[in-house]
């Protein structure tokens, strides 16, 4: 319990520091949001009034605490370009990104756990070598290229699945699932290849442990011994890598959403950057950073729960 409390405290402090870093980074970027909102023909008087309306004429500390106070209440401010509230847009876009990342991770786990385990148990045999070679090839393929290839095969040639677009699940579940297949595969195949190699290494290390040889000497066959005594120990390093993969999926979703025209956080981020809507960019980056920190926190807690050696007793 002590380890979990300590990790919770580190998570809270990390959130505070991350918010300062994100705000400071956006504050030092060149460009005037008022000038972007009004255009190059705006008069100095109108620029000054707009900066005052945006709160840009206040000290940076006052701007930070005003922004964070709003964020803690779910108010991310209003877009400098469109004037629309940023918070509701973030919630809608975050839902799309979470569906994509969750489906991509599911595909990665479905591929990595069985194939990584088989590659370890068939070590130095032809099937194990083939799985290792395919996983190495998958690691070398970027997610956006995998998406383009999948679109070419399943959308353009076979016409089984749509090439892009988004249908909310509350409107049509069938179309929602059909539209999610190719983006999830483009993310999941690449990350599944990376995760397969980690699963293989973890299972190989477990197969050489004394307790597993003891279990086999007592009459357990190799696969039952591995399933009963080995997989939980092999899961300890994989859980850490799984957290890193989730953060990688979040970053990869930025490009994949663009390839498949999905209205997620990645598309919103690219649109906001192109229009120099710095307040929207600031909110999106903060949400992504919080998501990464939250994933790392959950992984730390799961690591403590999976490995009894890390638990602290009274």
From TrEMBL:
Reply yes or no: does the keyword Membrane apply: yes
**Keyword Membrane, does the record have it?**
yes
Where does the protein end up? Cell membrane
Xref: InterPro entries? BPD_transp_1_N, MetI-like, MetI-like_sf
Keyword set, alphabetical order: Cell membrane, Membrane, Transmembrane, Transmembrane helix, Transport
Q: Domain ABC transmembrane type-1 spans what residues?
A: 94-299
Task: Write down the membrane topology.
Answer: Multi-pass membrane protein
Assign the protein's first listed, main location to one coarse class.
Answer: membrane
The regions listed as transmembrane in this protein's record are 9-29, 98-122, 134-156, 176-195, 234-261, 281-306
**Protein family membership:** Belongs to the binding-protein-dependent transport system permease family.
Q: Which PANTHER family match?
A: DIPEPTIDE TRANSPORT SYSTEM PERMEASE PROTEIN DPPB-RELATED
Q: What is this protein called?
A: ABC transporter permease
Q: To which species is this protein native? A: Amycolatopsis acididurans
């Amino acid at each position: 319990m002590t380890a979990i409390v300590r990790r919770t405290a580190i998570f809270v402090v990390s959130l505070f520091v991350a918010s300062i870093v994100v705000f400071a980074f956006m504050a030092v970027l060149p460009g005037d949001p008022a000038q972007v909102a009004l255009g190059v023909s705006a008069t100095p008087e109108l620029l000054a009034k707009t900066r005052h309306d945006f709160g840009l004429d206040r000290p940076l500390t006052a701007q930070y605490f005003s922004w964070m106070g709003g964020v803690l209440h779910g108010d991310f401010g209003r877009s400098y370009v469109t004037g629309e509230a940023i918070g509701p847009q973030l919630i809608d876009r975050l839902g799309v990104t979470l569906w994509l990342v969750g489906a991509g991770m599911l595909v990665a786990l479905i591929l990595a756990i069985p194939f990584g385990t088989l590659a370890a148990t068939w070590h130095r045999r032809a099937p194990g070598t083939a799985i290792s070679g395919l996983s190495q090839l998958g690691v070398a393929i970027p997610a956006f290229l995998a998406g383009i290839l999948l679109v070419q095969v399943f959308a353009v040639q076979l016409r089984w699945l749509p090439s892009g677009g988004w249908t909310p699940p509350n409107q049509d579940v069938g179309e929602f699932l059909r539209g999610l297949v190719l983006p999830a595969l483009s993310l999941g195949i690449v990350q599944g290849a990376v995760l397969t190699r980690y699963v293989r290494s973890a299972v190989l290390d477990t197969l050489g442990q004394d307790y597993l040889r003891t279990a086999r000497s007592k009459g357990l066959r190799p696969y039952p011994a591995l399933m009963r005594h080995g997989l939980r120990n092999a899961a300890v390093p994989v859980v850490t890598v799984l957290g890193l993969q989730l953060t990688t999926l979040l970053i990869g979703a930025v490009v994949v959403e663009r390839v498949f025209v999905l209205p997620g956080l990645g598309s919103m981020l690219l649109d906001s950057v192109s229009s120099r809507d710095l307040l929207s960019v600031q909110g999106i980056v903060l949400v992504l950073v919080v998501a990464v920190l939250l994933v790392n926190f959950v992984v730390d807690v799961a690591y403590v729960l999976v490995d009894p050696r890390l638990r602290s007793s009274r």
